[in-house]
Amino acid sequence: MNIEQIYKDANALLDGHFLLASGNHSSRYLQSAKVLEYPKKAALLTDALAKMIRQNGLKVDTVCAPALGGVLAGYELARSLDVRSIFVEKKEGGMVLRRGFEIAKGEKIIICEDIITTGGSALKAAKAIEALGGEVVAFASLANRGFCKRVGGNDTTKPECALPESIPLFALDDFTFEMYAPEHCPLCKEGRSKAIKPGSNA
Ligand code: ZN
């Protein structure tokens, strides 16, 4: 399964000149929601992710996603693993479980995202679950931006990674892009384009 090609085919992996939320520029950008536009394609991706998780012998009761970005990936992963799906939502800088969702003490939970960048939202979700007595057994993501080390991946953990190294991260592929401070951006130096905010024109 060529994950990068699947993202390209879905226009989820863009080539161009982008202004990232961090203020840096990049020639590539992952519009990760695009790869989930077609449920059958999403199911193929989460089936592959579920296979990786099962091969590790991990027992899972429930998938929990941080809303909004993780919800579709989390729901599909729960379907692939044949377990329950819940989500947590942002509140006052953290994440909370609402809408009548409950978890049992010791329930084994995977935190699932569509994309893990530094893992900040996933970590907040994990803290919310642990505060309610759940056990976070893994993090999972379709795409990994390469700041955190995934099981079987070649990248090392970068200082920006917020996820604890004691809990495994499963992801289908690493998408590690070069990023440049604007004053050092080679695309700006070429002078043929201006950095655009991805998503603002599409
Ligand atoms: Zn630039």
CATH fold description of the largest domain: Rossmann fold
The level-1 CATH class of the largest domain? Alpha Beta
Q: Care to count the β-strands?
A: 8
CATH architecture of the largest domain: 3-Layer(aba) Sandwich
Within the largest sheet, what's the order of strands?
5-4-3-6-7-8
Tell me, rounded to a whole number, the average pLDDT: 94
Rg calc: 17 Å
DSSP helix count?
A: 5
What is the share of helical residues?
25-40%
Structural category is alpha/beta
What is the domain tally? 2
Looking at the chains present, what oligomeric state does this protein adopt? Answer: single chain
Break the fold down into its secondary structure elements and pairings:
Elements: H1 3-9, E1 13-19, E2 25-30, H2 39-55, E3 62-66, H3 71-81, E4 84-91, E5 94-97, E6 108-116, H4 120-131, E7 135-144, E8 169-174, H5 186-190
Parallel strand pairs: 3-4, 3-6, 6-7, 7-8
Antiparallel strand pairs: 1-2, 4-5
The structure holds zinc ion.
Zinc ion is lined by residues 17, 25, 182, 185, 187-188, 195.
Explained architecture:
The protein has 202 residues and is of the alpha/beta class. It has two domains: 15-30 and 176-202, no CATH class; 32-174, 3-Layer(aba) Sandwich (Rossmann fold). Helix content is 26%, strand content 27%. The protein has a six-stranded mixed beta sheet, with helices on both faces. A hairpin with a 2-residue loop joins strand 4 (84-91) and strand 5 (94-97). Helix 2 (39-55) crosses helix 3 (71-81). The chain is globular. The mean pLDDT is 94. The structure holds zinc ion.
